[in-house]
Protein backbone atom coordinates (compact mmCIF):
# COMPACT_ATOMS: atom_id res chain seq x y z
CA UNK A 1 0.00 0.00 0.00
CA UNK A 2 1.20 3.58 -0.56
CA UNK A 3 2.69 5.68 2.23
CA UNK A 4 3.60 9.35 2.58
CA UNK A 5 7.03 10.04 4.05
CA UNK A 6 8.19 13.28 5.66
CA UNK A 7 11.76 14.24 6.48
CA UNK A 8 13.01 17.60 7.68
CA UNK A 9 15.93 19.49 9.15
CA UNK A 10 16.08 22.72 11.13
CA UNK A 11 19.08 25.00 11.72
CA UNK A 12 21.18 23.48 14.50
CA UNK A 13 21.88 26.88 16.02
CA UNK A 14 18.32 28.06 15.83
CA UNK A 15 15.81 28.39 18.62
CA UNK A 16 14.49 25.19 20.16
CA UNK A 17 10.84 26.28 19.93
CA UNK A 18 10.38 25.43 16.20
CA UNK A 19 11.92 21.99 16.81
CA UNK A 20 9.54 21.32 19.70
CA UNK A 21 6.58 22.63 17.70
CA UNK A 22 7.33 20.29 14.77
CA UNK A 23 7.76 17.32 17.12
CA UNK A 24 4.40 18.06 18.74
CA UNK A 25 2.70 18.41 15.35
CA UNK A 26 4.09 15.08 14.17
CA UNK A 27 2.82 13.45 17.32
CA UNK A 28 -0.62 15.04 16.93
CA UNK A 29 -0.78 13.82 13.32
CA UNK A 30 -0.18 10.25 14.47
CA UNK A 31 3.02 9.86 12.43
CA UNK A 32 5.45 7.07 13.26
CA UNK A 33 9.22 7.07 12.78
CA UNK A 34 10.39 3.57 11.82
CA UNK A 35 13.86 4.93 10.97
CA UNK A 36 15.65 7.93 12.39
CA UNK A 37 14.60 11.21 10.79
CA UNK A 38 11.86 9.65 8.66
CA UNK A 39 8.19 10.08 9.59
CA UNK A 40 5.42 8.06 7.97
CA UNK A 41 1.66 8.32 7.50
CA UNK A 42 -0.71 6.44 5.21
CA UNK A 43 -0.94 8.13 1.79
CA UNK A 44 -4.43 9.41 2.45
CA UNK A 45 -5.46 12.81 1.17
CA UNK A 46 -5.77 14.39 4.61
CA UNK A 47 -2.40 12.98 5.71
CA UNK A 48 -0.60 14.28 2.62
CA UNK A 49 -2.15 17.72 3.13
CA UNK A 50 -1.13 17.73 6.81
CA UNK A 51 2.48 16.97 5.87
CA UNK A 52 2.41 19.68 3.19
CA UNK A 53 1.36 22.29 5.75
CA UNK A 54 4.04 21.05 8.15
CA UNK A 55 6.68 21.29 5.41
CA UNK A 56 5.67 24.91 4.89
CA UNK A 57 6.07 25.60 8.63
CA UNK A 58 9.54 24.03 8.60
CA UNK A 59 10.63 26.15 5.63
CA UNK A 60 9.27 29.31 7.26
CA UNK A 61 11.43 28.48 10.29
CA UNK A 62 14.52 28.41 8.04
CA UNK A 63 14.66 24.64 7.64
CA UNK A 64 14.24 22.16 4.83
CA UNK A 65 11.55 19.56 4.34
CA UNK A 66 11.10 16.66 1.94
CA UNK A 67 7.80 14.91 1.21
CA UNK A 68 7.71 11.59 -0.65
CA UNK A 69 5.18 9.02 -1.75
CA UNK A 70 6.49 5.50 -1.19
CA UNK A 71 4.84 2.37 -2.55
CA UNK A 72 6.96 -0.08 -0.56
CA UNK A 73 9.74 0.03 2.02
CA UNK A 74 12.68 -2.31 1.49
CA UNK A 75 12.92 -4.63 4.49
CA UNK A 76 9.82 -3.23 6.13
CA UNK A 77 6.50 -4.83 5.19
CA UNK A 78 3.16 -3.05 5.13
CA UNK A 79 1.97 -5.41 7.87
CA UNK A 80 4.86 -4.37 10.12
CA UNK A 81 4.21 -0.68 9.47
CA UNK A 82 0.55 -1.12 10.36
CA UNK A 83 1.58 -2.86 13.57
CA UNK A 84 3.89 0.04 14.43
CA UNK A 85 0.94 2.41 14.04
CA UNK A 86 -1.19 0.20 16.30
CA UNK A 87 1.61 0.06 18.90
CA UNK A 88 1.87 3.86 18.90
CA UNK A 89 -1.86 4.21 19.45
CA UNK A 90 -1.72 1.47 22.10
CA UNK A 91 0.68 3.64 24.06
CA UNK A 92 -1.65 6.65 23.80
CA UNK A 93 -4.71 4.59 24.66
CA UNK A 94 -2.89 2.99 27.58
CA UNK A 95 -2.17 6.32 29.26
CA UNK A 96 -5.77 7.38 28.67
CA UNK A 97 -7.15 4.08 29.95
CA UNK A 98 -5.15 4.37 33.18
CA UNK A 99 -6.77 7.72 33.95
CA UNK A 100 -10.18 6.39 32.97
CA UNK A 101 -9.68 3.33 35.21
CA UNK A 102 -8.87 5.61 38.14
CA UNK A 103 -12.06 7.58 37.55
CA UNK A 104 -14.11 4.40 37.19
CA UNK A 105 -12.71 3.12 40.49
CA UNK A 106 -13.85 6.26 42.34
CA UNK A 107 -17.35 5.89 40.89
CA UNK A 108 -17.72 2.22 41.82
CA UNK A 109 -16.29 2.59 45.32
CA UNK A 110 -18.35 2.34 48.47
CA UNK A 111 -17.99 5.99 49.41
CA UNK A 112 -21.19 7.92 48.86
CA UNK A 113 -20.95 10.51 46.11
CA UNK A 114 -22.61 13.90 46.08
CA UNK A 115 -23.57 16.18 43.20
CA UNK A 116 -20.22 17.99 43.30
CA UNK A 117 -18.35 14.70 42.90
CA UNK A 118 -20.49 13.81 39.91
CA UNK A 119 -20.02 17.26 38.36
CA UNK A 120 -16.24 16.92 38.63
CA UNK A 121 -16.40 13.38 37.26
CA UNK A 122 -18.47 14.54 34.26
CA UNK A 123 -15.96 17.29 33.56
CA UNK A 124 -13.10 14.78 33.66
CA UNK A 125 -15.07 12.35 31.50
CA UNK A 126 -15.57 15.11 28.95
CA UNK A 127 -11.80 15.68 28.80
CA UNK A 128 -11.16 11.95 28.49
CA UNK A 129 -13.69 11.68 25.67
CA UNK A 130 -12.06 14.57 23.80
CA UNK A 131 -8.63 12.94 24.19
CA UNK A 132 -10.06 9.62 23.05
CA UNK A 133 -11.56 11.28 19.97
CA UNK A 134 -8.16 12.79 19.12
CA UNK A 135 -6.45 9.40 19.43
CA UNK A 136 -9.20 7.67 17.45
CA UNK A 137 -8.86 10.28 14.70
CA UNK A 138 -5.27 9.15 14.01
CA UNK A 139 -5.88 5.47 14.78
CA UNK A 140 -5.51 4.63 11.12
CA UNK A 141 -5.42 0.85 11.57
CA UNK A 142 -7.79 0.45 14.54
CA UNK A 143 -5.64 -0.57 17.47
CA UNK A 144 -7.52 -3.09 19.67
CA UNK A 145 -6.65 -0.94 22.69
CA UNK A 146 -9.09 1.69 21.43
CA UNK A 147 -12.08 -0.59 21.93
CA UNK A 148 -11.07 -1.19 25.55
CA UNK A 149 -10.92 2.55 26.27
CA UNK A 150 -14.24 3.16 24.49
CA UNK A 151 -15.86 0.42 26.56
CA UNK A 152 -14.55 1.86 29.83
CA UNK A 153 -15.66 5.39 28.94
CA UNK A 154 -19.11 4.04 28.10
CA UNK A 155 -19.32 2.35 31.52
CA UNK A 156 -18.27 5.57 33.25
CA UNK A 157 -20.84 7.55 31.27
CA UNK A 158 -23.53 5.07 32.24
CA UNK A 159 -22.52 5.24 35.91
CA UNK A 160 -22.83 9.03 35.80
CA UNK A 161 -26.08 9.10 33.85
CA UNK A 162 -29.29 9.59 35.77
CA UNK A 163 -31.46 6.51 35.72
CA UNK A 164 -33.51 6.92 32.56
CA UNK A 165 -37.26 6.98 32.80
CA UNK A 166 -39.21 4.27 31.07
CA UNK A 167 -38.59 4.68 27.38
CA UNK A 168 -41.92 5.33 25.66
CA UNK A 169 -43.16 3.00 22.99
CA UNK A 170 -42.89 4.40 19.47
CA UNK A 171 -45.16 2.97 16.81
CA UNK A 172 -43.32 1.46 13.87
CA UNK A 173 -43.55 3.30 10.55
CA UNK A 174 -42.67 1.91 7.12
CA UNK A 175 -40.25 4.05 5.10
CA UNK A 176 -42.12 3.13 1.92
CA UNK A 177 -45.34 4.65 3.25
CA UNK A 178 -43.67 8.08 3.49
CA UNK A 179 -41.71 8.19 0.22
CA UNK A 180 -44.06 10.64 -1.49
CA UNK A 181 -45.33 12.55 1.52
CA UNK A 182 -45.11 16.31 1.99
CA UNK A 183 -43.67 17.45 5.33
CA UNK A 184 -44.12 20.46 7.59
CA UNK A 185 -42.46 21.70 10.74
CA UNK A 186 -42.22 24.93 12.71
CA UNK A 187 -40.21 27.89 11.36
CA UNK A 188 -36.72 28.81 12.57
CA UNK A 189 -35.48 25.19 12.68
CA UNK A 190 -32.77 24.35 15.17
CA UNK A 191 -30.96 21.11 15.90
CA UNK A 192 -33.89 18.69 16.29
CA UNK A 193 -35.84 19.86 13.23
CA UNK A 194 -32.70 20.17 11.09
CA UNK A 195 -31.65 16.64 12.03
CA UNK A 196 -35.14 15.39 11.16
CA UNK A 197 -34.97 17.16 7.80
CA UNK A 198 -31.63 15.45 7.15
CA UNK A 199 -33.14 12.07 8.11
CA UNK A 200 -36.05 12.62 5.71
CA UNK A 201 -33.77 13.54 2.83
CA UNK A 202 -31.18 10.86 3.62
CA UNK A 203 -33.41 7.84 4.27
CA UNK A 204 -36.89 8.61 2.92
CA UNK A 205 -36.90 10.96 -0.06
CA UNK A 206 -33.98 13.21 -1.08
CA UNK A 207 -36.40 15.47 -2.99
CA UNK A 208 -39.05 15.65 -0.29
CA UNK A 209 -41.00 18.89 0.07
CA UNK A 210 -40.45 20.31 3.57
CA UNK A 211 -42.43 23.39 4.48
CA UNK A 212 -41.91 25.65 7.51
CA UNK A 213 -45.15 26.80 9.11
CA UNK A 214 -46.98 26.74 12.43
CA UNK A 215 -49.98 25.09 10.75
CA UNK A 216 -50.04 21.78 8.89
CA UNK A 217 -52.13 21.28 5.78
CA UNK A 218 -54.31 18.15 5.57
CA UNK A 219 -51.93 16.34 3.18
CA UNK A 220 -48.74 17.12 5.16
CA UNK A 221 -46.89 15.04 7.73
CA UNK A 222 -46.04 17.22 10.71
CA UNK A 223 -42.83 16.68 12.69
CA UNK A 224 -41.63 18.37 15.86
CA UNK A 225 -45.06 19.99 16.25
CA UNK A 226 -47.78 19.57 18.85
CA UNK A 227 -49.88 17.59 16.38
CA UNK A 228 -48.50 14.84 14.15
CA UNK A 229 -46.96 11.37 14.29
CA UNK A 230 -43.40 12.49 14.94
CA UNK A 231 -42.65 14.68 17.93
CA UNK A 232 -41.15 14.44 21.40
CA UNK A 233 -42.13 11.25 23.22
CA UNK A 234 -41.35 11.23 26.92
CA UNK A 235 -37.60 11.78 27.17
CA UNK A 236 -37.05 11.33 23.44
CA UNK A 237 -36.50 14.27 21.10
CA UNK A 238 -38.24 14.17 17.72
CA UNK A 239 -35.17 12.89 15.89
CA UNK A 240 -34.95 9.95 18.31
CA UNK A 241 -38.66 9.29 17.81
CA UNK A 242 -38.21 9.14 14.04
CA UNK A 243 -35.12 6.94 14.30
CA UNK A 244 -37.04 4.44 16.42
CA UNK A 245 -40.21 4.64 14.31
CA UNK A 246 -38.36 3.88 11.09
CA UNK A 247 -36.09 1.28 12.70
CA UNK A 248 -32.84 2.97 11.64
CA UNK A 249 -30.47 0.68 13.51
CA UNK A 250 -27.28 2.36 12.29
CA UNK A 251 -24.50 3.12 14.85
CA UNK A 252 -23.69 6.45 13.19
CA UNK A 253 -27.36 7.49 13.25
CA UNK A 254 -27.50 6.42 16.90
CA UNK A 255 -24.50 8.62 17.69
CA UNK A 256 -26.14 11.57 15.92
CA UNK A 257 -29.29 10.92 17.97
CA UNK A 258 -27.25 11.26 21.19
CA UNK A 259 -25.74 14.54 19.96
CA UNK A 260 -29.11 15.95 18.93
CA UNK A 261 -30.70 14.82 22.22
CA UNK A 262 -28.05 16.58 24.31
CA UNK A 263 -28.15 19.86 22.36
CA UNK A 264 -31.96 19.86 22.31
CA UNK A 265 -32.79 18.65 25.83
CA UNK A 266 -29.57 19.40 27.75
CA UNK A 267 -30.30 16.77 30.38
CA UNK A 268 -26.70 15.52 30.72
CA UNK A 269 -27.53 12.01 29.52
CA UNK A 270 -24.90 11.91 26.79
CA UNK A 271 -21.35 13.24 27.21
CA UNK A 272 -20.63 13.49 23.49
CA UNK A 273 -17.43 15.46 22.68
CA UNK A 274 -19.02 16.78 19.47
CA UNK A 275 -21.82 18.64 21.27
CA UNK A 276 -20.17 22.02 22.05
CA UNK A 277 -18.81 22.54 18.54
CA UNK A 278 -21.99 21.55 16.72
CA UNK A 279 -24.09 23.61 19.11
CA UNK A 280 -21.90 26.66 18.42
CA UNK A 281 -22.17 26.19 14.65
CA UNK A 282 -25.96 25.87 14.78
CA UNK A 283 -26.28 28.97 16.95
CA UNK A 284 -24.23 30.88 14.40
CA UNK A 285 -26.98 30.24 11.82
CA UNK A 286 -29.83 31.75 13.84
CA UNK A 287 -30.07 34.85 11.66
CA UNK A 288 -30.31 32.84 8.42
CA UNK A 289 -33.51 32.01 6.55
CA UNK A 290 -35.26 28.68 7.10
CA UNK A 291 -34.20 27.40 3.66
CA UNK A 292 -30.60 28.46 4.27
CA UNK A 293 -30.56 26.77 7.65
CA UNK A 294 -31.89 23.58 6.11
CA UNK A 295 -29.29 23.59 3.32
CA UNK A 296 -26.44 24.08 5.76
CA UNK A 297 -27.96 21.64 8.24
CA UNK A 298 -28.17 18.88 5.63
CA UNK A 299 -24.50 19.42 4.77
CA UNK A 300 -23.54 19.44 8.46
CA UNK A 301 -25.31 16.18 9.27
CA UNK A 302 -24.07 14.56 6.06
CA UNK A 303 -20.51 15.31 7.13
CA UNK A 304 -21.16 14.20 10.69
CA UNK A 305 -22.70 10.94 9.48
CA UNK A 306 -19.71 10.23 7.23
CA UNK A 307 -17.26 10.94 10.06
CA UNK A 308 -19.13 8.86 12.63
CA UNK A 309 -19.48 5.98 10.18
CA UNK A 310 -15.68 5.65 10.27
CA UNK A 311 -15.31 6.08 14.03
CA UNK A 312 -14.61 2.94 16.12
CA UNK A 313 -17.96 1.64 17.37
CA UNK A 314 -18.86 2.40 20.98
CA UNK A 315 -20.32 -0.08 23.40
CA UNK A 316 -24.14 -0.18 23.44
CA UNK A 317 -25.74 2.14 25.94
CA UNK A 318 -28.26 1.14 28.58
CA UNK A 319 -31.20 2.99 27.00
CA UNK A 320 -30.53 1.31 23.66
CA UNK A 321 -30.68 -2.12 25.24
CA UNK A 322 -34.14 -1.36 26.57
CA UNK A 323 -35.60 -0.47 23.18
Q: Can you describe this structure in just a few lines?
A:
The chain is an alpha/beta fold and 323 residues long.
Provide a descriptive summary of the structure in words.
With 323 residues, the protein is of the alpha/beta class. It folds into three domains: 68 residues, Alpha-Beta Plaits (2-Layer Sandwich), CATH 3.30.70.1130; 83 residues; 147 residues, no CATH class. Helix content is 53%, strand content 10%. The protein is built from eleven helices and seven strands. β2 and β3 form a beta hairpin. α3 runs parallel beside α5, α6 crosses α10 and α8 crosses α10. It is globular and about 75 Å long. The C terminus is likely disordered.
Task: Spell out the blueprint of helices and strands.
Blueprint: E1 3-9, H1 16-29, E2 32-35, E3 38-42, H2 45-60, E4 64-70, H3 78-108, H4 115-137, H5 144-160, E5 182-185, H6 191-204, E6 210-212, E7 220-222, H7 238-245, H8 251-265, H9 275-283, H10 290-309, H11 318-321
Parallel strand pairs: 5-6, 5-7
Antiparallel strand pairs: 1-3, 1-4, 2-3
Helix pairs in contact: 1-2, 3-4, 3-5, 4-5, 6-7, 6-10, 8-10
Keywords:
alpha/beta; 7 strands; four-stranded antiparallel beta sheet; three-stranded parallel beta sheet; 11 helices; 323 residues
How much is the average pLDDT?
A: 89
Radius of gyration: 24 Å
Q: Overall 3D geometry?
A: globular
Number of helices: 11
Helix content: 40-55%
